[in-house]
Design brief:
Blueprint: H1 2-19, H2 29-34, H3 36-46, H4 53-66, H5 75-79, H6 82-98
Helix pairs in contact: 1-6, 3-4
């Protein structure tokens, strides 16, 4: 049920984004862990705030100092055993495709 509700919400958000491209920005949490300064630069640009790559990097560094993420990109892929992976994909497989994790 959770995955279905999440899928519907993501679908509704993306539908809004298609109709309102200047008012919609989609960021995956994995992007934040892989390249945080690029995400900050995109957020600042989306918000209409002038920045440079140096400003975005400084913002990302300060945000990390204030609240470091305790997530590791893709950790679920290596920590699930076969049974957990099977159950997870049965419940969330369509959601994972929707989020481009297939």
């Amino acid at each position: 049920r959770f995955a279905q509700a999440w899928s519907r919400t993501i679908g509704a958000g993306r539908k809004f984004g298609q109709k309102n491209q200047t008012r919609y920005l989609e960021i995956q949490s994995s992007d934040i862990t892989v390249d945080p300064s690029s995400v900050v630069a995109a957020l600042l640009d989306f918000s209409g705030v002038y920045s440079t790559q140096k400003i975005a990097q400084n913002c990302a560094d300060m945000a990390w100092d204030i609240s470091p993420l305790d997530v590791e990109h893709g950790v679920w892929e290596t920590t699930f055993d076969d049974e957990a992976n099977r159950l997870f994909l049965r419940q969330c497989g369509e959601l994972m495709k929707l989020l481009n994790y297939d």
